[in-house]
Amino acid sequence: MSDGTRKRPHVWLALGLLAILPGLAFAGAGKEPKDPWALMMLRFEFDNDTFIGSDDVFTAGWSVQLHSRVMDRWNRGYSGWIGKVPGLGDDGEGGRVVRWAYGLSQIILTPSDISIETPQPDDVPWAGTLGLTGSWWSNDNRKLAALQIYLGCLGPCSHAEQVQKFVHEDLGFGEPPKGWGNQLSNRMLANLNYEYRYKLYAVDVEAYVPGRFAHDLSIGGQAAVGNLLTSVTGQIEFRFGWGLTMGFTKIPDPPGLGIVMEPIYFDPKAPLVDLYHWRIYFNLVARSRWITYFAPAEGGATESGYHHPALDSYPGEHQILFGLHLVRVPFGMHVTYYRYVGSEPPGIQGSIDWINFSFEYRF
């Protein structure tokens, strides 16, 4: 084993997960399949930049999510208010599908040099967020609308310090972080996000099955309002592969910065075909985001008493995402690379690119 590999145990972790997942998918092959319309989903997402040789700015993030089964109409608890949000209605029995998801998430941000104990006013602040989300969406194979509510906190209440120290020091996955005494102080966070997407081009429905190549093209936009993020985003997404699902791209933005959902589509009027076969497909997303407020970038009071200045500009306004999706019900794995386009904003010393790993189990 080389010294470089010893210093990067996350490489072995990633390879282990890639090796284990196919075996897990076959483990339940002999069991009687459950009604596909009754399947709920548990998803775990892990975000990190060390997989691309960096460990700063957006250092890490994770979320655990519970997604509802696929429904073709809202139940009484949601129809009276979610169903009245523009685009989020259902068409009654046999129309669009609707779903909800709830999640818990954490984000960790650090300066480029985590070995420095003193304040670093010329770099990203030490900061962490912890939040709960509720998401609701309605879609078919042509259009999608989604709404999300985020409630959380920024500061020591996020326990980002304890999590990073446990991973770096107790597990030995990185250099001991020494500057958490300078993290941004506690503040409450709340955000409301709304998204709409529309498919410009889609192949015939018969092509959305395992073993057949399919592709489609969509555009969309998202608006976020709150004291975590206030922004407007526009995007274009291209999907292609073998066994492409109907619906839209799964974009694994950290909850609050994006919307937690599973935007696939099943036609309620048609039987599900080959649900339990392998699907492998890809997506390419280009988007631009106009940001007017992002809590960690605003600086502010810190636990050591100094005032961290705001960043000169907001990071991550122009992005290209490339995703790989491997699914065989009840398991799924998704890998998405976030590539930020353009020069890095002043005040950011390190790279802001990162990778998301998502693991799913339907039950």
How would you characterize this protein structure?
With 363 residues, this protein is mainly beta. The chain has a single domain (3-362), classed as Outer membrane protein (Lipocalin, Beta Barrel). The chain has four helices and 14 strands. It has a twelve-stranded antiparallel beta barrel with strand order 1-2-3-4-5-6-7-8-9-12-13-14. Strands 10-11 form a two-stranded antiparallel sheet. Mean pLDDT is 85; it is low at 1-15, 17-30 and 52-56.
Topology:
Layout lengths: L2 H4 L2 H19 L13 E8 L8 E11 L8 H4 L17 E14 L16 E13 L3 E12 L5 H11 L16 E16 L10 E14 L2 E14 L36 E16 L5 E2 L5 E2 L9 E11 L2 E10 L13 E9 L1
Antiparallel strand pairs: 1-2, 1-14, 2-3, 3-4, 4-5, 5-6, 6-7, 7-8, 8-9, 9-12, 10-11, 12-13, 13-14
Query: Could you give the distance between the termini?
Result: 39 Å
CATH architecture assignment: Beta Barrel
Query: Into which percent range does the helicity of residues fall?
Result: 10-25%
Q: In what order do the strands lie side by side in the largest sheet?
A: 1-2-3-4-5-6-7-8-9-12-13-14
Global mean pLDDT: 85
Low-confidence residue ranges = 1-15, 17-30, 52-56
Tell the overall outline. elongated
Query: Count of DSSP helices?
Result: 4
Count of DSSP strands: 14
